[in-house]
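Hi, here's the filled form for the chain we discussed.

Project: internal
Contact: R.S.
Residues: 331
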Amino acid sequence: MTNDDDERPPDRCVLQHQVFTMLGAVSFRRARADGTPVMVVTLGEREAVMPLRALQREFAISDSSPDGRMLGLIAESLDYVCGLSLGDMLPSEVLTGRASWVPSAEHLRRAHSIVRMQLLSWIDPMAADPARGDPMLRLEAEPELRQQVQKAFERAAAELDLADGNDVVQRVGELAGELAYIEALRDRLLRPVQSIAARLEHLVQTQRGDSQRQETLNRVLRLSTTARQQFQARFEEIAAQTGEVMSALRNMESQQAFIRSNRDQLYRAQRAWQPILDGWAGCEPSEEVPWELISRTYQFLAPRYMPFTEWTAAAGRQARAAPQQVQSMAW
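And the returned structure, exactly as it came back:
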């Protein structure tokens, strides 16, 4: 008989092959150049870096072996943490699907208001009309609106064949709990990217300088606009998918999987963007934007949002123009 505990993957970074112990302390991160998952060993004053896939080939570690499965979990974990060492706990996204971070109380409150207003709209579209004001403020200020929401809970219980409105309240809480992460990412990722694109558009319209810098500004604006549009489309898709509240409450398991998949993709994007977002946040709107920040933004955006053929041509020109600088030793 198979022991369930033997089948359950470890919740910590545990590897058995001697390569992971014979060289001293090892750690895992993504390569700074291209994001490849790598193992890092410190050798004196230098770092030895080996991509995990190359490591598996070199030491014949199959994907199906315990070490192979753990290396796969490590690679996935590096989407959510900066690095791992042996013995470190794996992030909860990899272990259970739950987020390893927590949205604020304000984001949870906003998500609750959104879902309740969607439920109200199900029975009375005019009462939940966004043109009539902010949903959260209205729910707090209008007692009659809260009474209508309670009626919506009762009708939804009958529609969903649940015992009473309390069961609907529980499902609404679960759905809002998942959507709170999306609301947090709206503030942490979408709105800052929108702000950067708006500031770049203003710079293109007002700043005058040499033609090379002006062309770079135009390129950064185009790329930031592409990024903004892609993020906006993702948030609109989430809203459309979860906006049919009765369908969402009826199919909680599939809705949860959909929201979490998008949550994790947006969170990975936010982690990648964070140094750029911090740079622009530290530059007051009244201040002149440092050229170093614009250049760094272009270097970040180009490989991610430039059309492939254009990017490969630009990368080739850059490689021919600049000598390579090796910062670490790769095996």
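Let me know if anything looks off before we file it.
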